[in-house]
Amino acid sequence: MKKTLVLALCATMALTACGGGASAGDSQAKGDSKQKLVLSTFGLSEDISTEEVYAPFEQEFNCEILTETGGANDRYTKLSADSETSIDVIELSQAMTAKGIAEGLFEDNDLSKIENAKDMITAAKTMADAGQGVAYTINSIGIMYNPNVVDFEIKSFDDLWDSRLAGMVSIPEITTTFGPAMVYMASDHAGVDIKSDNGEAAFAALAELKPNLVKTYAKSSDLINMFTSGEVAVAVVGDFGVPTIQQANPDLVYVTPDVTYANFNTISITKNCKNKELAYAYLNYRLSAELQTKTGKALNEAPTNSKVSFTEEESKNMTYGEKAANAKVLDYSFVNPLLNDWIDRWNRTINN
């Protein structure tokens, strides 16, 4: 899907000002001679992204960012199907990035061209060094529960297996962003390294969890009605969904266990990139402490730059500080080849 992002400019500035994230079609119609960077992105809070992210970069580099927006799966499918793609840079989930790397869609990252990469938090730096994408934000999962229904304090993911939670729990569906994290979690509950048995112990543990499960969910927003109606009292949820759910039900408590499971959103340069120098400049810009401070406050994006500092209030719904340091990072080069089998086993174990 293409979407035009244009800053409101007065007529006298139209010939001299830098474009605010326009579409490719608009740029061609104007005959703009500035260097272009075609960015495929999620398209969330587009007006804020235009003002806080795109416009300053355009002004600094005398360029124009052309955006193509949509869901990660749709944008990835479009990229992989078009050998002559015009996309220079793409923002995707960690899982989609790993898939693209395996399929040879992306440029091998040269971190020496990304000065701010040296300041990334440990998990993001490890992932980048392994060639698994440049992470610009991180999120993770925790446990949300209704203390008016649950008669004990939930502290860890192991508590989800407590028999006192029979018929109370909801977890993300396997095909969602954090679905594979449920398999990792179950393997850790069983005390088995998931890579040692490809998830065998995990699915045995998930079978043991089933008496506590009410249902799985596809979108965190689905939990609002589930909690409000009393259908569930406990759920595993990504931190990005917490503010909306708690706004609907302020009584709910959100707990991030000492060890949680992380997901990164990453930026990659495509093999077909027309302007790799500008693309590397954009990656470096996205990792800067200055920009990540702005996007953290404006877009609630948890930073991957270790020099970004937020107050406790500013970061209360973010994977930040110790939460980020202690988060386990899923290895999607391991997960993706197994995912179809995991989906089948999940359906037979959880959804039958």
Description:
The protein is an alpha/beta fold and 352 residues long. It is 38% helix and 17% strand. The chain contains 14 helices and ten strands. It has helices spanning 24-30, 46-61, 72-81, 94-102, 122-129, 179-189, 194-197, 200-209, 222-228, 242-248, 276-286, 289-299, 322-326, 332-349; strands spanning 35-41, 63-69, 89-93, 134-145, 169-172, 213-217, 234-238, 253-255, 261-269, 328-329. Strands 1, 2, 3, 4, 5, 6, 7, 8, 9 and 10 form a ten-stranded mixed sheet that branches. Strand 1 (35-41), helix 2 (46-61) and strand 2 form a beta-alpha-beta unit. Mean pLDDT is 89; it is low at 1-20 and 23-30.
Compact overview of the structure:
This protein is 38% helix and 17% strand. The protein has 14 helices and ten strands.
What does the secondary structure layout of this molecule look like, with pairings?
Elements: H1 24-30, E1 35-41, H2 46-61, E2 63-69, H3 72-81, E3 89-93, H4 94-102, H5 122-129, E4 134-145, E5 169-172, H6 179-189, H7 194-197, H8 200-209, E6 213-217, H9 222-228, E7 234-238, H10 242-248, E8 253-255, E9 261-269, H11 276-286, H12 289-299, H13 322-326, E10 328-329, H14 332-349
Parallel strand pairs: 1-2, 1-3, 5-6, 5-7, 9-10
Antiparallel strand pairs: 3-9, 4-7, 4-8, 4-9
Helix pairs in contact: 2-12, 4-14, 6-8
Q: Helix amount, in percent?
A: 25-40%
Alpha-carbon distance between the termini?
35 Å
Number of strands: 10
CA-atom Rg in angstroms:
21 Å
Structural class: alpha/beta
Low-confidence stretches: 1-20, 23-30
The shape, in one word, is globular
Q: Describe the biggest sheet?
A: 10 strands, mixed
What's the pLDDT, averaged over the residues?
89
Query: What is the strand content?
Result: 15-25%
